[in-house]
Amino acid sequence: MLRHTATTARKHFSDLLDAAEAGEAVFVERRGRTFKLELIRPDAPAPAREPLFTVDESLLEGQWNFDAEGNFTLGSS
Length: 77
Hints:
Elements: E1 2-5, H1 6-11, H2 13-21, E2 26-30, E3 33-37, H3 57-60, E4 64-66, E5 72-74
Parallel strand pairs: 1-2
Antiparallel strand pairs: 2-3, 4-5
């Protein structure tokens, strides 16, 4: 169990976060009040989502072009 004053906690904040992440109890005292620092773990992973859009494979492969008039074309033309 780690117990620090607010001043000490400020100087070693990243170390205290590491300790809390590792499951150690971390307490910070300020003006007679005690605060507990702990990691909040998500209940479950976020559900998978459908993609918002798809991208044509030829575009990903660099097979696209603009002609002199500014028209966009896909493929190797």
